[in-house]
Amino acid sequence: MTIDLASATAALEGARSLVQADGGDLVVDEVEGATIRAHLVIEGAECAECVMPRQFLEQIALDMARAELTTVESVTIHDPRE
User: Fold this and answer.
1) Low-confidence ranges of the chain (pLDDT < 70)
2) Measured between alpha carbons, how far is residue 47 from residues 41, 56, 59, 71, 72 in Å?
């Protein structure tokens, strides 16, 4: 089953909500095979350091994505803080 951008974005909505609670955002850039690639937007966040670390966020996003799309193998997130 091929994962499209719209499905990937919908599958990460829960993780996105977590980031938005701290004033940031999580944007899906592309889907490559079974990998969802996204980037963290923290520009304008009230507390950029409050947004969870990339590794932790990637695991949460993967768990949430797999609940919707069982074929997802990984989620990678570009974090501008690194």
Assistant:
1) 1
2) 12, 17, 21, 34, 30
